[in-house]
Amino acid sequence: MALVTMKEILEDASKRSYGVGAFNINNLEFLQAIIEAAEEENSPVIIAISEGAMKYGWVELLSSMVKTAAINTKVPMALHLDHGKNFDKILTAIRYGFTSIMIDASDKSYEENVKLTKEVVKVAHPLGITVEAELGRLLGKEDEVESDVAIYTDPDDAKRFVEETEIDALAVAVGTSHGAYKFKGEAKLDIERIKKINSLTGVPLVLHGASGVPHELVEEAQKYGAVLKGAKGVPDEEIKKAIEAGIRKINIDTDLRISFLLGVRKYLSEHPEIFDPRKYLGEGRAQVKKTVKKKMQLFSSSGKA
Fold it and tell me: Which residues are catalytic?
């Protein structure tokens, strides 16, 4: 089928109370892994491309690959711009057929965030394109996004923000962070805050920085030379609670990167004589696929397509 909007996917997730993974891609192997996982799990899926990935993978090429994949699969799939900060990049994404846009002005004042978000809504909504925005701020660094402070989303501000901007989905700051080093102490999300924001806004909520950074995945990657000391993510139980509380879109990037790293390092370590990139990149792809399938099962999106 052709690409669908993220709004369409999240509306069904809200009706049936499950979460949908938004998986970041930078190249062909990541896309193949995610599509194969979605088909095998019969799960809707959101393919996310960041501004950095637009540059690295050439937005023309990446978007064409995603649109081709969508035509050749039966599961609902949306193409989403992750953390759009540059208005020109947002317009570029729209021009190349993205069906969903995130405007991230969370580093601005509340008033400026509203102003910039409304400008994107004004352009995107007449074209039937979903708009996600963010209120609050996550710690950490990932791709083009970085913050050394965390500001939790205020529920009353969230209600006002949604009403003023008319966005379709809201990314909230409730204890997660970007990157592989999310927690120093107890890994815990503010579930009550999610519940309150959900009850006040009535729009699908988004959890950024939601990778689990599984201990066993990190250990195995380190066995083959990766350096990930202290990496720690969001536990599966916290993700389940967040979905029950109203989270409908869960962003996953770090777990895919570590999985790919593991696959490539493991294959090259065990086959030092091989120089065919299809061999070692293919093993990276297989590891990403395995991780995506586990996430779809965790989010309860399996069987929902």
Answer: 82
Q: Which CATH class is domain 6-299?
A: alpha beta
Q: Look at residues 23, 104, 92 and name the one whose alpha carbon lies nearest to residue 58.
A: 92
26-to-23, 188, 229 alpha-carbon distances in Å:
10, 29, 25
pLDDT digits (tens, 9 = 90+) for 217-239: 999 999 999 999 888 889 999 99
Q: Which helix (H) or strand (E) holds 180?
A: none
Angle at 129 between CA 128 and CA 131, to 5 degrees: 130
* Chain centroid, CA 25 distance in Å: 10
Whole-model pTM: value is 0.93
Give yes or no for a contact between 138 and 179, defined as CB atoms under 8 angstroms apart.
no
State both tokens at 106.
């969370």
8 Å CB contact between 197 and 155: yes
Q: Where are the domains of the chain?
A: 6-299
Quick check: 279 and 54 in contact, CB under 8 A?
Answer: no
Element containing residue 150 per DSSP (H, E): none
Residue type at position 32? Q
Within the chain, strands assigned E span: 20-24, 45-50, 77-84, 100-103, 130-135, 140-142, 145-147, 169-172, 205-207, 247-252
